TrEMBL record:
CDD domains in UniProt: TPP_E1_PDC_ADC_BCADC
Residue intervals of the Dehydrogenase E1 component domain: 24-270
Cofactor: thiamine diphosphate
SUPFAM superfamilies registered for this protein in UniProt: Thiamin diphosphate-binding fold (THDP-binding)
Region (Disordered): 309-331
Matches recorded under Pfam families: E1_dh
Keyword Nucleus tagged: no
Identification of the protein by name: Thiamine pyrophosphate-dependent dehydrogenase E1 component subunit alpha
Length: 331
């Protein structure tokens, strides 16, 4: 079954102070990461969710502590909307003391409580399906964030097939920003995501609004049904990425980037309630500045000790012979 909803954009007041703080925390956190990369203070890569922050913020109250959240390479906002632990996340990305995963996960591979992220496209959805199988009947669900580019992965369809057959509490959140790294979705996705979900009998809801409270009201009964029936749901957000793909590689034209910026919640909320917005914006910007200064001053995270392995005696003896240069093998 396909359910579609179109919501006209208007100059509405920003959401609650709590939601606005979350939105602006994510925005300034992501901007700080791009600055840190420019300064050479972070190794590896990172993918910011600039312009898409409202999606996890809208979903946050609909997810329970018992739920599992599976994120992707563009997952900082997913984490910060769910866990108020920006120090641990930044320490993880910078490889500093206090890192969530000892600094070995970095930007893309975070495992914290019931939150898991991966940079491997499509990898999280079959794992989320397996977790949903274990959660069925408990009232909890597995939520997996994917992008429109991920719908080129076969694992997506295997997961949807199983989730539909077994009626699993699986929520698939699609952040459809129209481009898969450097390839426009129109050049790599035939048909629609809604029609592909329908082929498996999976419900689909398309959201075009960027208003946090409106999105939350639309999705609340659908997410409740995922838990109670249970049954999978694909929630497709038509969104826009206003930042680069990763730390600086943006292949879009200036006109395309400008179109994305015109849809940004940030400017709209700033114009709708300038005084309240400016106050919370200053507060969150100052907090992120302090966060960066404190985490950058920490020592590097100590490398975690490798786990002890139980080696069978015969294999241990063979390894010793190899190390000694006497393998006993015939040439």
């Amino acid at each position: 079954m396909i359910v579609t909803a179109a919501s006209p954009q208007s100059l509405r007041p920003p959401p609650s102070d709590q939601d606005l703080r979350s939105l602006l925390l994510i925005r300034h956190f992501e901007l700080a990461l791009l600055r840190l990369f420019e300064q050479g203070a972070v190794s590896g890569t990172t993918h910011t969710c600039l312009g898409q922050e409202y999606i996890p913020v809208a979903l946050a109250p609909l997810l329970l502590d018992e739920d599992f959240v599976f994120s992707n390479h563009r997952g900082h906002g997913h984490f910060l909307a769910r866990h108020a632990e920006p120090y641990g996340l930044l320490a993880e990305i910078m490889g500093r003391e206090g890192a969530l995963c000892g600094g070995v996960g970095g930007s893309q591979h975070v495992y914290h409580r019931r939150f898991l992220s991966t940079g491997v496209q499509g990898e999280s959805l079959p794992v989320a399906t397996g977790v949903a199988l274990k959660l069925a009947g408990s009232g909890a669900l597995a939520c997996a964030y994917v992008g429109d580019g991920t719908w080129g992965e076969g694992a997506v369809y295997e997961a949807l097939n199983m989730a539909a057959l077994w009626r699993l509490p699986l929520l698939v959140v699609v952040e459809h920003n129209g481009i898969a790294q450097s390839t426009p979705t129109s050049a790599q996705l035939a048909g629609t995501i809604g029609a592909r979900a329908a082929a498996f009998g999976v419900r689909h809801h398309r959201i075009t609004s960027t208003e946090v409270e409106e999105i939350r009201a639309e999705l609340a009964p659908l997410v409740a049904a995922v838990r109670s029936e249970p049954s999978p749901l694909v929630a497709e957000f038509v969104t826009h990425r206003i930042g680069p793909h990763s730390k600086g590689d943006d292949t879009r034209s200036l006109a395309e980037i400008e179109r994305a910026r015109r849809s940004d919640w940030h400017a709209r909320y700033a114009a709708a309630d300038p005084e309240r917005f400016a106050r919370i914006d200053r507060e969150q910007r100052a907090f992120v500045d302090r966060l960066v200064a404190e985490v950058a001053a920490r020592p590097l995270a100590a490398p975690a000790a490798p786990p002890a392995l139980a080696v069978p005696p015969a294999l241990a003896e063979e390894s010793s012979r190899i190390a000694a240069g006497a393998t006993g093998r015939r040439s």
